[in-house]
Amino acid sequence: MPSMRSEAKRPPAIALADCNNFYASCERVFRPHLEGKPVAVLSNNDGCVVARSNEAKALGIAMGEPFFKARALLERAGGQFFSSNYALYGDMSQRVMSALAQFTPDLEIYSIDEAFLNLTGIPAGDAADYARRIRRVVKQWTGIPVSIGVAETKTLAKIANRIAKKQRPDGVFDLRAAPSREETLASVAVEDVWGIGHRYAFRLRQRGVETALALRDADERWIQKEMAMGIVGVRLVYELRGIPCLPLDLCPSPKKEIVCSRSFGRPVESLAELKEATAEYVSRAAEKLRRQGSLAGGVGVYLMTNPFKNEPQYYNSAYIPFPAPSNITPEMIAYALAALERMYRPGYRYKKTAVLLSGLVPDNVIQTSFFDEDDESRMRGMRLMRTVDKINARLGGGAVKFGAAGIAQEWQMRRRHRSPAYTTRWDELAVVKSGDGCFRRAARKRKNKREKR
Fold first, then answer.
1. What percent of the chain has pLDDT over 90?
2. 3-class secondary-structure state, position 338
3. How many CA atoms lie within 13 A of 408 on its CB side?
4. Residue 210 CB coordination number (10 Å)
5. DSSP state, 269?
6. 123 CB neighbour count, 10 Å cutoff
């Protein structure tokens, strides 16, 4: 198992493992008959396409395309579409990351479907074989296909991964062993370099820097001053030259803010339903807050109508600081509902509400106010939250809920095509059916065993 710490003097080797069409692949794991067929995953409320399989891309379905346009194409091609199922995708992501962690102790989880691995110590000629082994194991353990690019730096690994995904049948590319690095970098447009946004890409192209190779060979002082990219731009140039400037982030910093925001499945007008939605979003945000070991200093609530509708519009927000940092859901719900009541105006058709927890601090140090004397009540509340989290972790999210969030929740977003939560709910586990032949074979084996005895 390679490690940057133990192989500090060896040339660096960073691999980027990226799941192919992750959301669509998660759906295919439990529906193997969709292999080779177009698959699309839809946004909240089934509004537009947010993920596509290669077959769906080949049909010409673009990212963000409205669902009503893509639906006919998919159905004619024998494809299938799904509402977003983030519980399934999150759990499958954890399984992929656990599989990747078997191959190196230095793993940076970059996003739900990407991770950097430190493979320093593996010679250039062997790294591709090692990456193929990683790819094979991840596929065997999780069913998710991944592409892996290897290079000296994270920026080059991103480029290598792009080539592995689009140009290599085996899904692996080691840039260090490429016959011509210059030719490879010249084939990558500057806007496809990690960290180059549309604005910088436009300015670079105006000045003749159109490829990753041209950016690598640019004067770093010119990049820093004339292009106003600062030290970030200099690091980017060095990374393209194979000089590591972006170390692996093995212990991601906790979030500084936590937001929970959803559009409603239909316009909401009553204060009672808005309160339910706000309480539900506070509950979800509070779970994330406790999971990262933080307390919040206050809660912000946002309320808005649909700006794309030709009807009266209203937008407002309010923020209420807590007397002392807290992660106790009922306490936070009470403040959030007070903020909502302050903003609410009848007569509007609301589209969305959002909750923001900010002023986050570690939960091992609580700075209470001078007049706060109810420490025992606070500690009791925190113990209760830990118990609730344990129950929900064991029995599934939502096993214990807060009454303020309502029961029916008819304002919930539309997810008419959601697949089951195969891996996180007992009542939605995949069902395996076997034919009569299987039963006959099993009965014959049992009979043979009895006769041998």
1. 66
2. helix
3. 4
4. 16
5. -
6. 12
Q: Using a CB cutoff of 8 Å and minimum separation of 24, what contacts does 283-286 make?
A: 283/329, 283/333, 283/401, 283/402, 283/405, 284/260, 285/258, 285/259, 285/260, 285/355, 285/356, 285/357, 286/327, 286/328, 286/329, 286/332, 286/357, 286/385
Give the pLDDT band of residue 4 (cuts 50, 70, 90): very low
Q: Please, is 299 exposed, middle or buried when counting C-beta atoms within 10 Å of its C-beta (0-12, 13-18, 19+)?
A: buried
Residue 142 is which amino acid?
Answer: T
**Which of 260, 336, 222 lies closest to 44, judged by CA?**
260
Report pLDDT digits (tens) over 116-158. Answer: 999 988 876 788 999 999 999 999 999 999 999 999 999 999 9
Cα distance between residue 193 and residue 162, in whole Å: 10
pTM for the structure as a whole: 0.80
The 8 Å CB, 24+ separation contacts for 387-393 are 388/329, 389/287, 389/290, 389/291, 392/287
Burial of residue 199 (CB within 10 Å: 0-12, 13-18, 19+) is exposed
**Cα Rg of the chain, angstroms:** 26
Do the beta carbons of residue 358 and residue 298 sit within 8 Å?
Answer: yes
Determine what percent of the chain falls in helix, strand and coil, rounding each to the nearest 5.
Answer: 45, 20, 35
Length of the chain: 453
Residues facing 81 on adjacent strands: 40
Residues forming a β-bridge with 51:
41
**Rounded distance between C-alpha atoms, residue 360 and residue 285, angstroms:** 12
Instruction: Report d(CA 45, CA 358) in Å as an integer.
Output: 27
What positions carry a catalytic annotation?
114
Q: How many CA atoms lie within 13 A of 308 on its CB side?
A: 3
Amino acid code (one letter) for 407: I
Residue 109 β-bridge partners: 115
- For tokens 């292999």, the residue is 35
Please tell me the predicted confidence (pLDDT) of residue 349: 96
- CA–CA separation, 290 vs 395, rounded Å? 18
Please choose, from the candidates 220, 201, 221, 199, the residue with its C-alpha nearest in 3D space to the C-alpha of residue 209. 201
End-to-end CA distance of the chain: 47
